[in-house]
UniProtKB/TrEMBL annotation:
Superkingdom as given in the UniProt entry: Bacteria
The protein's Enzyme Commission number: 2.7.13.3
Entry-linked Pfam families: Protoglobin (PF11563)
Keywords from the UniProt entry: Kinase, Transferase
Gene name of this polypeptide: gchK
Entry annotated with the keyword Transferase: yes
UniProt-recorded name of the protein: Globin-coupled histidine kinase
Gene3D superfamilies (alphabetical): Globins (1.10.490.10)
Keyword Kinase set for record: yes
GO function term, MF aspect, one: heme binding
Residue stretches making up the Globin-sensor domain: 6-157
Length: 183
């Protein structure tokens, strides 16, 4: 399934509507400055796992690049623009994860750190009904985020299984093939 079609299904399934997108966009000035702090917590959490530590810190400069990429990803969550380009970028993130050996079992629990810190900031910074809409909107977009990345991982796995029967290697191989095909 292409990214745009999947995105439309996910928006429908999560109930993310225009007023949620507007709420997220209005939160960008409040939340974007937190991106470096949340990136630090995210990679600190991932780095506690020996397998992820090797992936993240095994290549010089990788984790520093990832901090910047994470900050851009986090800010885009609050852009309010969830279109074909957005979906393609998220699918690409999943493929890049798969290519280097990062699996959903690594990313999904770490995404919990992102949610926890974001929701705590909402509770501290917002008042009244605005906190409820912020939480509802953020939870919906995070569900979309995780589903897009997981679907790209599954696509990489399916492609890789055509080339190798080693399941742990298949997603990496499939991701390379799909990323090369997309240019």
């Amino acid at each position: 399934m292409d990214a745009q079609t999947l995105l439309q299904k996910l928006l429908s399934r999560t109930g993310l509507q225009q007023h949620h997108a507007e709420a997220l966009r209005s939160l960008e000035p409040l939340m974007a400055p937190l991106a470096p702090e949340i990136a630090l917590a995210f990679y600190d959490y991932l780095g506690r796992d020996p397998e992820m530590h090797e992936i993240l810190w095994g290549t010089p400069g990788r984790v520093e690049r990832l901090y910047r990429s994470f900050a851009a990803w986090y800010r885009e969550i609050f852009s309010g623009v969830y279109d074909a380009g957005y979906a393609a970028r998220r699918m690409r993130i999943g493929l890049v994860h798969a290519r280097v050996g990062v699996r959903p079992e690594h990313v999904l629990p770490a995404a919990g750190i992102v949610q926890e810190l974001t929701l705590e900031h909402f509770r501290q910074a917002l008042r009244g009904s605005e906190v409820f809409l912020a939480i509802e909107s953020f939870e919906k977009i995070m569900a979309v985020e995780m589903a897009l990345m997981e679907e790209s991982y599954l696509q990489a796995l399916a492609e890789g299984l055509k080339l190798t029967q080693e399941v742990r290697e298949a997603a990496m191989v499939g991701a390379r093939v799909l990323l090369e095909a997309k240019g």
